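Re: zinc ion structure - here you go.
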Amino acid sequence: MKRYFYALLFLFMFLASPKAGFIDAEAYAAIGSSESYFKIAVVRNASKIDVSNVDYNASKEYCRLFERNKIAKNFTVSVSCSGGSLAVNGKKVGAASVLIYPKKNSYLKINSKPYRGKFLIKVDSGSVTAINHVALEDYLKAVVPSEMEQNADIEALKAQAVVARTYALATRGKHKAAGFDLCNTTCCQVYKGVSEENPRTSKAVDGTRAQVIYHSGKLINAYYSASCGGYTESVEEAWPGALAVRYARVIECPHCKKDAKMSWTYKISQEEFVRKMRKAGFAINGVDSARLYDKTRSGRFNTVEMKGSFGTLYYSAEIFRKVFGNNNIKSSFFNIVIDRPKSVTKNFKFNEIDDIIKARNDYNNDLLNGHITFKGSGYGHGVGMCQHGAKKIAASGGNFRQIINYYFTKEVNIKKIY
Ligand SMILES: [Zn+2]
Ligand SMILES: [Zn+2]
């Protein structure tokens, strides 16, 4: 009997050990709870990364590097890259990557910022990258407060948690080629670690644990933006070439439509406009007139025509957001107003060719003293859930399911997947 006991004990230790070959500890944990683990890059291509709060016992390989290279274990070490190898406190350690675990009941700190989960620090084309291996629910606890204000009504925060969870699962692997699932910026979802967490948003994550949005048996691409400006945009009109889907159509949003605060104006001098456009590679001078074309069903325009001494040029509306910043031109839901210069050349008597050139130059100089004004509404691409509307629906008593069904249509359903 005793022999069987020892045999079982040995088998148990073998299976439980992370080094037990057959099954990785992470995969083992994932099977147990069925919760997904994500790889999120939090520092990319840095010259060095400061690492602290490492559990040296759990991080065996890391610990060995210190011993082998006779490096004293500090609370904080600086990891950099030296000729294809990691360097610890400036000393090349002969390893290209290292997996580190946090001290018990604590968090690893990367550049002084605490994160849940463990980290892979690796050499990445002559620099270092830190990839956080984190459970999906833990990841969301830091994402939700970065994507919606914590003082929003709890049902709006819950809708945000479900949407962010669905988005993470549906876009997982976006950066697969670079060796991680998602990055920590608006390219994927903003993720800044434990210091962002707060009890209200964590409650919204816990209260919707494992719930995600499905349509026709598939996870949806759960897009969201800060404010739709009155009408959400369909995915295929926001991003030409994207596949049209029934859950991301144009939806009227009375919450943004009624709210004057959702309108914005961006006025820029023609001189600055020209300077910035030229810097971005567009051969343009002062703009005489602008017209908008290719109106989408939501009322946004896709194409801007600009005329001037440079001729006639056509731009995608999104280009202006890139050149002048998303915080200045908050959406592509805008109109353009051009101040015409006061000098009028119509009644001018042209006697000599020089007069014509002078008049034209004067006009162009005057033009540059004028302004171009973008007048718009909404903030962001406008596809999917409108966060402003979600907050308004929640504030008037709606729950997170009603919010999701409003913006992604009644055809979607919310399922608990683990
Ligand atoms: Zn990304
Ligand atoms: Zn809206």
